[in-house]
Amino acid sequence: MKYALVLVNIKGLGVKTFTYLIPDEMREEIQIGQAVLVPFGRQGLQNAFVVGFSDYVSGDFRVKKINRIIDKTPLFSLKYLKLLEWVANYYCCDFVTVLNAALPMKLIDKNAKTELSIEWIKSDGEGLTKRQKEILALLKEKGKCSITEFEEIAKTTRATLKKLAEGGFVKIKEEYIYRNPLSIFKDIETEPLFELQGEQIEAYEGIKAKLRSPNPILLHGVTASGKTEVYFKLIKDVLDSGKNVLFLAPEIALASQLTKRLARKFGIKEVAIWHSSISDGEKYDVWQRLFKNEIRILAGARSAVFAPLQDIGLIIIDEEHEGAYKQTNPAPRYDARIVAKRLAQFHQAPLLLGSATPDVSTYYYAQNNNNLFEMKKRFNNSPFAKPQVINMQEYGKASYRGIISKPLQTEITETLERGQQVILLMNRRGYSTYTQCKACGTVIECPDCSIPMIWHTSIKKLKCHYCNREQSFPDFCPQCGSDALSTSGVGTQKIETLIKELYPEARVERIDSDILTKKNAHIELLTRFQKKEIDILVGTQMIAKGLDNPNVTLVGVLSADSGFSVPDYRASERGFQLLTQVAGRAGRGEYKGKVLFQTYNPEYYAFQTAKSQDYEKFFDTEIKSREEFDYPPFSQIVRLILSSQNNFRAEKSAMEIAMRFSTMTDKFGFSEYLEVLGPTPCVIEKLNGFYRFQILIKNKLTQKGHDFISKFLSKIAIPKDIRLAVDVDPLDIL
Ligand code: ADP
Ligand code: ZN
Ligand code: ZN
Question: Which-ligand-closest: CA of 316?
């Protein structure tokens, strides 16, 4: 091998690969995954990663030499690159995009932090002063430690210590210091694993018997059925066998909670955490420790699937139905579950998915592969609250401001009187949902996104929830000039206001992504809620997740149908999941829980099944409709979005691509397996000033069809003013 392919992050160009000559003296040492220094035009020396080798270069340009190897320890392996290549191929995007997402490029600039340590060697010798003897005695007692720390303890100077080192009395050495984000859990106390019971034992034994399965295993267990304890037992077995475990949670907050629980059970040294918000320094350190196989359990959010954990013996993905596992923007638009499945196959390790409300496709496959395990009861046997439906067609008029029905008011009052807590779900942020002209009916929309702008009382402005544009409330209708503008619809802020009016004595707080601008605000509120410092918590779906508070006995969903009315094939699934999850927050302890759904649409099937918390029934109905319309799992959807600031240009290029694709599928005999829908304007027609058109491709012949699509996409040329986004297995088609 004469040449190395290196990955460079160039200002203005982004991350790209380039070929460099390997100097003779480096041939022996150079390895894939090493950080190297390379000359790059006028930009001078740049940090780069070695990602491949070759014996020749194409084209006749003068190839520059690699300057030097920064660090001999590689940061990733060839096997790792193979996984990323697979991801690039599956998601129809280029390899460098995946590398860039997977491998924190900042790693390269962030060298390990080193520190000098000092260690005692001997105290007897010629010509030692009394003071020097004191220092040596102190060091002998203290043991090896950081030199700066010791200088402080011994009230001495670097020069004094250096002199002792020269005399061979002490040893001063440069050493790595790992920055472990887990140091916040330093004082955590360990506790033993629980003895599994009842349904847990059956699930555990069943899963154990399936650990060689190349297909994902699903643990479908109702909330608080004790799934996490089953995971822990399996983790213990894997650790005992000498292998490591990757454990994913859908969000950073949940991953942190989980890490704590893992540290308590398995010890702080074994566990590390990985997500997008840990600092670059921490990333660098965790990365190194993973690569050196010093970590046994890695917990994290979606991006942890790309961390270089070695010798994986089990991958667990909890709350697998959560959309957060999929990256929607920017590319690669990967789903951590899909990548994890591939990763598991690489390691010949099982992939275990867990949820109370599994993804319909996951459930379908697990059932067909005989890889489905179920736990139907809560661990402490506390009964599920059967949701009571409040038909707002009947109760609407008599409700407080048409929003909070009488029965819900009564329940809130009674719950507060018992000293218990309430959760109110409103799946929309802001104060009102839209501002409308009463004279001509015009709704004030974001000029860049064709989405109604939402009134936020806290900032006294209209805000677009897609692009964050803010504007003040208009005095006149932009269409007819009338001043009859008013807001209607409801958001979390309005609920908060109304609840405070109704219950002036109660302590009311709100959780939604608007408050998340403050770091940890979410966790802080949940902790206060847990400590009973809040009586009523109002929020979006964020409150439906993970909360385990035995004092919550009332859950009210203010507008239970809002999720179902979205024009998307997964709307029913998402609506069902949300209602089931939020209902599961009530009555988890010894007190009986109550759940109230306010709705205008009580007959809808997904709603009916959510009401009875009957996943199987929901699944049976849903899967039939998926089959009828060829939606996943009966097809794979690839969504192409073409956007441009020029509406006409966007539409034209979408039409051209759709036509070309149809012609090609006909020509190569794929039209039976690949169906092209569109182009149509996206439901959100305009976003951030870009007009959007979508083409949906339904692929029924999975592998061959996929290869065909991926080849087609790699060959099309897109004009400069048009953007193409490819989304394989999109979360929604809005
Ligand atoms: P899930 O993950 O299904 O929501 P968890 O595993 O968190 O459920 O269990 C719910 C509660 O029951 C937790 O407080 C957990 O500690 C407790 N629990 C579960 N299994 C056991 C067990 N075998 N012995 C004692 N407590 C258990
Ligand atoms: Zn008007
Ligand atoms: Zn906007």
Answer: 1
Residues flanking ligand 1, CB < 6 Å: 194-197, 200, 221, 223-229, 379
Atom of ligand 1 nearest to the CA of 200: 23
Residue 697 token pair: 């491709």
Please, where are the H alpha helices in 454-520? 492-502
Joined tokens for residue 280: 């670059």
Give me ligand 3 centre to Cα 371, in Å.
44
Question: What CATH number was assigned to the domain covering residues 382-428+490-625?
Answer: 3.40.50.300
pLDDT per position as a tens digit, 634-692: 999 999 999 999 999 999 999 999 999 999 999 999 888 898 988 988 878 888 899 99
Mutate to test the pocket of ligand 1, among 191, 228, 264 (most ligand atoms within 8 A of CB): 228
Q: Tell me the C-alpha distance between 654 and 641, whole Å.
A: 8
For ligand 1, the distance from its centroid to the CA atom of residue 443, given in whole angstroms, is 49
Q: Residue ranges of the domains in the chain?
A: 3-107, 114-176, 184-377, 382-428+490-625, 430-489, 636-728
**What's the CATH number for 636-728?**
3.30.70.600
Nearest CA to ligand 1 atom 4: 224
- Those residues with Cβ within 8 angstroms of residue 666's Cβ, 6 or more apart along the chain or in another chain: none
Segment 322-355, tens digit of pLDDT: 999 999 988 999 999 999 999 999 999 999 999 9
Contact 390, 556 (CB under 8 A): no
Q: What is the reported pTM?
A: 0.83
- Tell me which residue has its CA closest to atom 17 in ligand 1: 226
How many A from CA of 172 to the centre of ligand 3?
59
CA of 451 to the centre of ligand 3 (A): 7
Q: How confident is the model at residue 241 (pLDDT cuts 50, 70, 90)?
A: very high
Assigned CATH topology for domain 184-377? Rossmann fold (3.40.50)
AA letter at 646: N
Taking the CA of 476 as reference, the closest ligand is 2
Q: What is the structure's pLDDT at 566?
A: 64
Q: Which of the four CATH numbers 3.30.450.40, 3.40.50.720, 3.40.1440.60, 2.60.40.1640 does domain 3-107 have?
A: 3.40.1440.60
CA nearest to 576, candidates 391, 324, 385, 357: 357
Helix (H) / strand (E) containing 638: strand 636-644
